[in-house]
Amino acid sequence: MNATDLRALLARWAGIMADKRDWLIELDSVVGDSDLGLTMSDGFRAASEAADASDLADVGKLCYQAGKAMATAVPSTMGTLMASGLMNAGKVLKGLEQLTPAQEAQLFEAYLEGVKNRGKAELGDKTFLDGLAPAVDVLTQAAQAGPIGAKEAQAAADAAWQAFENTRGMLAKHGRMAIRGEASRELLDPGAAVAALLMKGYAEYKADSE
Asked: What CATH superfamily is the domain 3-209?
């Protein structure tokens, strides 16, 4: 993955968040203030547009720049968390113009850590982290065997979707959903849905690249 590839990935993410905006709004309306779809579509569009407007070849710097643009565009809780993921990935990958398979997996691992550090949540708290972590594990293992292609990316996307569905039954410990206490177990987590969409977009980008 190089800077051109990252721009293509960000564009794919912007597209999928726009396509699924109403679905995210519907999910969020049950537990939040119904703005998740707008936040994600506006935020990833801003990130993609910032990357497209830049001539940076450094993947890390480009990722960080995209994250800063998102943070400015959507300074809400979820917008800030997603921007923090991009910015942390940018810090970890700074100085690289061509990512190895391991570094490509590290992009997602760093994204996860950036969100975790900013939001102070842990795995099992029924958040975005629970949707993304299983996909990161799949990518990390795949990178140890060789390049990450469409097949491996789809496996990561499948893991993220299953993880999203598995949030039904979990007890929420953060945000408005946590106020519901035990009743939160019946609900799907919108943050994990965003993670599933990110991985779906990544799988589509990989399929388009082959």
From this structure: DhaL domain (1.25.40.340)
B/e letters for 175-204, b = 16+ CB within 10 Å, e = fewer, are bebeeeeeebeebbbbbbbbbbbbbbbbbb
Query: Which pair of structure tokens corresponds to residue 83?
Result: 């921007």
89 close to 107: Cβ distance less than 8 angstroms: yes
Question: What are the φ/ψ torsions at residue 174 (nearest 5 degrees)?
Answer: -140, 155
Q: Which amino acid is at 12?
A: R
Count the neighbouring beta carbons within 10 Å of the beta carbon of residue 144: 10
Structure confidence at residue 193 (pLDDT): 97
Q: What is the domain partition of the chain in residue ranges?
A: 3-209
Question: Contact, 172 vs 159, CB < 8 A?
Answer: no
* pLDDT-derived band at 152, boundaries 50, 70, 90: very high
Measure the CA–CA gap between 194 and 21, rounded to whole angstroms.
Answer: 10
pTM above the 0.70 mark? yes
